[in-house]
Design a protein that fits this description.
The chain is of the alpha+beta class. The protein contains three helices and two strands.
Length: 118
C-alpha cells in the first residue's frame, strides 16, 4: 500500500485478538514513533529560535556498531540492553541559513475533496 492508501485505510481499533505482535513489527513502530518525536523536537527548537541537527546513529539493525557503539560507551549506555537511535544537537545558531525545501513542485497534486486521481 502507498501512503495515501494507508491513510484512507487506517481506523481506530478497540478490540484485539490474543495474537502477539511480531517483534520486527514492534521495532518498526518504535522506530516510527521515535522519528516523529525527534522531528517534533527539531520543530520546537526552530520555534524557539534555536538551531538543531538530527544525527542518526543506527548503522546496523541487529547489532551495536560504529558511531552507535561509540555513543553508548561515552554515554554509559549498557551495550545489548539499549540502543542509541540518534543524537540531537540543540543550541543557539552561529549562522543564519535561508529556509529551503526539497519539495518538487511538479510532484505536488492539488485535488478536490473526495476526488482522488491516480
Amino acid at each position: 500500500m502507498d501512503a495515501l492508501d494507508l491513510m484512507l485505510a487506517r481506523r481506530s481499533v478497540r478490540s484485539f485478538t490474543a495474537q502477539d505482535v511480531a517483534l520486527e513489527d514492534a521495532q518498526k513502530l518504535i522506530d516510527a514513533a521515535f522519528a516523529g518525536a525527534t522531528e517534533n523536537i527539531l520543530l520546537e527548537a526552530t520555534a524557539l529560535g534555536l538551531g538543531s541537527v538530527w544525527c542518526g546513529m543506527r548503522e546496523d539493525t541487529t547489532e551495536v556498531v560504529g558511531c552507535e557503539k561509540a555513543c553508548c560507551e561515552v554515554l554509559g549506555v549498557p551495550l545489548g540492553k539499549w540502543r542509541v537511535l540518534a543524537l540531537i544537537g540543540i543550541g543557539h545558531p552561529g549562522e543564519k541559513k535561508k529556509p529551503r525545501t526539497q519539495r518538487q513542485v511538479s510532484k505536488i497534486s492539488y485535488e478536490r475533496f473526495g476526488k482522488r486521481s491516480r
